[in-house]
Design a protein that fits this description.
heterodimer; A: about 300 residues; alpha/beta; 6-stranded mixed β-sheet; 14 strands; elongated; B: about 260 residues; 4-stranded antiparallel β-sheet; 10 helices; disordered N terminus
Amino acid sequence: MKKIIEASGINKFFGAKQALKNISFSVNEGEMFGFIGPDGAGKTTLFRIITTLLLPDEGEMKVMGLNCLTDYKELRRNIGYMPGRFSLYQDLSVEENLNFYATVFGTTVKENYDLIYDIYSHIEPFKNRLAGKLSGGMKQKLALSCALIHKPALLVLDEPTTGVDAVSRSEFWEMLKKLRQHNITIIASTPYMDEAMRCDRVALIQEGKILTIEQPKKIRAGFSKKLFRVKASQKYKLINALKSYQGINTAFPFGDSVHITFKENEFNDSIYEHLKKMGITDVNIEETSAGIEDRFLELM
Amino acid sequence: MTRENSVLKRNKKMKNNPVISVKNLVKKFGSFTANENLNFEVYEGEIFGFLGANGAGKTTAIRILTGLSELTSGEVTVAGFNAKKQPEQIKKNIGYMCQKFSLYEDMTVKENIILYGGIYGMRMKLIRERMHSLLERLNFEEYRDSLIADLPLGLKQKLAFSVAILHEPRIVFLDEPTSGVDPVTRRQFWEMIYETADRGITVFVTTHYMEEAEYCDRVSIMSEGKIVALDTPAELKKQYQVGSMDEVFIKIARPGIN
């Protein structure tokens, strides 16, 4: 399979602070690849290196077989980049922004209209509105249209869904899915663990290091312990009671329940007795399978 | 109020003690209605989740509840004060924290605590006492003289929350407090929220993580300026016959989809 990105041993320092620590990975052609991790993990730094906007201190970054260091001019023509912060021209209209980006890349809106139709048609009724006056969701769609207008082979999206509500996030990923039929390779970063399921593969990233790269489906298998889901009506009391239980390994709140693992890995009956002693009688415990967030917590 | 008393109250009389009461709240900007006849109550010691899609009118409502913006019509009482007539009193009796701005980056931890304590009119002796117990509780003593800019985001957010309740307000407003925070810190943050509510301080919180909505005692969901749902997460899931708050949200937060 053709590799679109090949990174090996990337190190990046800002003064004494090391933002990226020995990052190596590859992304296949046509793949939807996600970088998942909290703020400060190094996602943006890595994306800036991929898009040739920053230089690594050590290591090699190849994109579409070209070297990010020496072939940056050629590369920039073939990459669509949507930065985390909205960076279109606020004092130009929707249509003017799109025309501007098309012209800069030596193409026209008409030429690649089919590529952006699904996205742009949502905001086309507002094409005369200034970009600065758009709502968050509309800005996002315009930014994506502008990043796509030169039909890039690689689309780089830095936290496209941060601060966006759950419904709009879901819509955004649906739009990305449709882009795949045009054979565009997509890498995207996000702090939302649930978005991992939208990707072919994900890299979990924390403090400048890649913790693991896996297919989201296989993440369950990667979780090394037996996981149990505990429910009771008084959640705060339950968490404290679980943490004071001798045989507990981890206890993390998950939605309406608490996910726990045992030190000895196997379920231990004595937990009921302990919880009862702590005043929790309406407890319900069952084995459950791990999700991506369980895995992330295990790796951290 | 002692801890035991507050817990007792929370368990027994929570519903009799609204700390926020909103009746027929309307807020207009010119011809645009941002809040259209909102009605709800938030009880003492409750964790109240305030959800909605972007642009649904959440921020407008929060600005009114925190005394920062004037309402067009309706009756809003927060911590016993009238939002229209006594916004300054409201500001003194609430805490506020948001993701975008919390503490001064170019000041130390200690300086920030003293500054905020001073703004809330606390005496130096009390500020020092609370600073001591706060730093101890957070295991933060070694950071006392660190600049905020040098702290990792997770620590910053935990500290910002503690500072927002330094003056022991009746209510604390948290606007997307955990955006972008790693999963471990996010859970530690929620444990702080539980602990705060347990002490009798009402927590009014917004979030885009639907899983966090499950941590709330009750949640309201806004859509197009109106509250379209308000109940416990368990009831909402039952009512809409789905397994998660994420699905509830997708079903009702945005009309015209599905």
